[in-house]
Amino acid sequence: MPITPTDKIWMDGELVDWAKATTHILTHTLHYGTGAFEGIRAYPTDDGVAIFRLREHIERLLASSKILMVDVPFSVDELVDACIKVVAVNKLDDGCYLRPLVYLGYGEMGLNPLPCPVSVAIAAWPWGTYLGDEGVAKGVNMKISSWQRHDPNAVPTAAKGTGMYINSSLAKVEAIKAGYDEAILLNPQGHVSECTGENLFVVRGGRIITPPSSGAGALEGITQDTVATIAADLGYELSFENLVRTDLYVAEEAFLTGTAAEVVPIRAVDDRVVGDGTPGPITKAIQSTYFAAVRGQLEQYRHWLTYAS
Predict the structure, then answer these.
(1) Beta strand pairing status for 207-210 and 238-240?
(2) What's the pTM?
(3) What CATH number is attached to the domain comprising 256?
(4) Is there a contact between 210 and 256 (Cβ–Cβ < 8 Å)?
(5) pLDDT value for 148
(6) Does residue 233 sit in the same domain as residue 277?
(7) Is 243 exposed, middle or buried (0-12, 13-18, 19+ CB in 10 A)?
(8) Which of 36, 66, 102, 307 is 20 to 30 A from 154, comparing alpha carbons?
């Protein structure tokens, strides 16, 4: 999805013009992939634009950096304030997507990243529905990828690391070229891990099941956690259990979650229609509650909102 430029990007404590927010071609992360990032959304509400679960995202950014042995020279509070500033200065009152990025800059080359300078940038721009409005309304078609999700002992799957997303990109391209909307990756043990950038849920016997993040090699999703809370509040039973691909084929309902994707029904997996091929009642209940929560329409979830205007 194309990026619409805005006015300013925050870089290491300074607001820089969009076109001037550049880095050297020999920046270490470009060559070796050591870095961490987040995707965060802000939504319009009756009280102004609000960033959804901002602090949790920044805390995960610093946790990812710690796992990768990258010392970030800014605190959670400083980066939270920077995100608010970026949304406000760019007047993104109709909502936006934020991309905080921790990366290793110019000055060292080679596989040892420790001497490299650490930089942080935060950009924000208007961004529509990641998997399309029709996907949100009617569901998406999924493919089990031929690419495996990383083994947690090969790379740290608990970190949202930049270079690790080559794995997701390969799976995404394979799915798109085969005529699907999105891919599902299995871990080396054959269990369902996650999609290329989303967590996955199925409904069986009225119960909601999602793979265990650490055991399946999936990232612990903030939207996944949000949905778990919403599901409990709506009275649904939810558990973290290993799934295999056939569990997806015979599910009553299935949906995926992520900050960019939000909550999206799954219509089919490997050409097996899920349920009757339309979004199921549990999926629709969680989806509608989620969209109400991010827009400040539900008092019980307003603590998840950080206002930027």
Answers:
(1) parallel
(2) 0.96
(3) 3.20.10.10
(4) no
(5) 97
(6) yes
(7) buried
(8) 102
Residue 172 annotated as catalytic:
no
Inside any domain, residue 306: no
Choose, from 160, 172, 177, 284, the residue flagged as catalytic: 160
Max CA distance (Å), the chain: 57
Confidence of residue 38 (pLDDT cuts 50, 70, 90): very high
- In this structure, the answer to whether residues 33 and 56 fall within a common structural domain is yes
For residue 309, what pLDDT is reported?
A: 74
Least Cα distance to 87 among 46, 123, 36 occurs for 123
Count other Cβ atoms within 10 Å, centred on residue 190: 10
**Rounded Cα–Cα distance for residues 134 and 132 (Å):** 5
Give a yes or no: residue 66 inside a domain: yes
How far does CA 225 lie from the centroid of its chain? 12
Strand partners, 17: 8
Q: What is the pLDDT of residue 36?
A: 98
| Domain's final residue, options 63, 96, 125 | 125
* Predicted confidence (pLDDT) per residue in 157-208, tens digit: 999 999 999 999 999 999 999 999 999 999 999 999 999 999 999 999 999 9
Select from 104, 125, 146 the last residue of a domain: 125
Q: Both tokens of residue 114?
A: 């420790």
In a domain? residue 282: yes
Do 288 and 155 share a domain, yes or no? Answer: yes
Residue 303 maps to a domain: no
Task: Specify whether the CB–CB gap between 267 and 140 falls below 8 A.
Answer: yes
> Residue 45 sits in a domain of what CATH number?
3.30.470.10
Q: What is the Cα–Cα distance from 221 to 194, expressed in whole angstroms?
A: 10
Helix or strand holding residue 118 (H, E): strand 118-125
